[in-house]
Amino acid sequence: MSVAERGVAPGDWRDWTWQMRHRIRSAEDLSRWVSPSEDEARAIAELAGRFHFVITPYYASLMSRDDPECPIRRQVVPRTAEARDPAGLADPLDEVAHSPVKNVIRVYPDRIAFCVNNECALYCRYCLRKRMVGEPGWAMKKRELAEALDWIRRTPEIRDVLLTGGDPLTYADDRLDWLLTELRRIPHVEIVRLGTRLPVTLPFRVTGDLVRMLERHHPIWVNTHFNHPAELTEEAAEACDRLARGGIPVGNQSVLLRGINDDPATMKALCEGLVRMRVRPYYLYQAQLLEGTAHFRVPIERGLEIMKSLRGRTSGFAIPQYVLDTPHGKVPLQHPYVKGREGDDVVVETWDGHLWREPNPLEP
Ligand code: SF4
């Protein structure tokens, strides 16, 4: 069904503030876009209170009307399986314990994740920050933002600040401009990164005005979060192109999710589609042991197989790094290509399974 057939004026549809105001928040709203299954309807009634259920009309328009297994739909519509996860934790990365001030997470000496807000355009069912997104207690008051900025000013080791949340692009332009101006006044902050899913879930947010404002604060980097090739729409490509034309390198961080992207063909199509949009596949995250997400988790061995299937079969820069995040930082996960040393040779496995002996004498 086209946008006009749904009674939405095209000007409204492409207005990100209209999209935010008209988000889907109930089973009744959802039924205008898809036919909710019995399980989805029950989960919305019983579980939406535990973790917020909000979807932009744009993202809803990508869903299959009749297939509850649709990879777009599964990312954002609750399922009763969310209630069956005895192992899941609220804060598996111990982010709260790593926060010197509210919503500033420091795991590494030189960089921080700064959760500047707790709002997103929609709420992904597997969100690592379920404990805080959409929860009023985690919203940053102006005083708390000022305290966080003060902490950054007083901590000269911090050279790289990732603005995340929630989603920093749900801020109005002038508020984000203020925050970036404050950060840019701190001499030791060399780069600012924005972690945002809006190019995927609400691409109309990436307006010309936004990009012109961001350009004034270079070097700015953006990491976004596409998980499936069906998200690589014309609108999303336009948003990423606008950022690239503004001199902003755009990387992608996917999460490995069962039934959504846990097969080699889907992952290859996703990575190659991203590269065509000039978005660099950066990380593929192993899903965390997070509450309510057992139905999304994939064994690490499966992730390794998927990564191995990409090596040699697509451009090297289309292959993200598969990582496990831990409370002590990220750990790269990779097939053991180096098999060991035999005398003066190191034996390695090539992408197509051959063993190669590389002469590599030890230092005298
Ligand atoms: S957009 Fe990111 S922060 Fe927001 S709900 Fe999704 S995964 Fe969580």
Count helical runs. 13
Structure ligands: iron/sulfur cluster
How many strands in all? Answer: 12
* Low-pLDDT residue intervals, each spanning 5 or more residues: none
Mean pLDDT: 95
Query: Strand pairing plus helix content: what structural class?
Result: alpha/beta
From the alpha carbons, calculate the radius of gyration and give it in angstroms.
21 Å
Report, as a whole number of angstroms, the end-to-end distance. 71 Å
The largest pleated sheet is described as:
9 strands, mixed
Oligomer: single chain
The shape, in one word, is globular
Order of helices and strands: HHHHHHEEHEHEHHEHEHEHEEEEE
Q: Percent range for helical residues?
A: 25-40%
Enumerate the strands of the largest sheet in spatial order, edge to edge or round the barrel: 1-2-3-4-5-6-7-8-9
How much of the sequence lies in strands comes to 15-25%
SSE inventory with pairings:
Elements: H1 10-13, H2 16-21, H3 27-30, H4 38-47, H5 57-60, H6 71-76, E1 104-105, E2 111-115, H7 142-153, E3 160-164, H8 173-184, E4 191-195, H9 198-201, H10 208-215, E5 220-224, H11 234-245, E6 250-255, H12 264-276, E7 280-285, H13 300-310, E8 321-326, E9 329-332, E10 338-342, E11 345-349, E12 355-359
Parallel strand pairs: 2-3, 3-4, 4-5, 5-6, 6-7, 7-8
Antiparallel strand pairs: 1-2, 8-9, 10-11, 11-12
This protein binds iron/sulfur cluster.
Iron/sulfur cluster (SF4) binds next to loops.
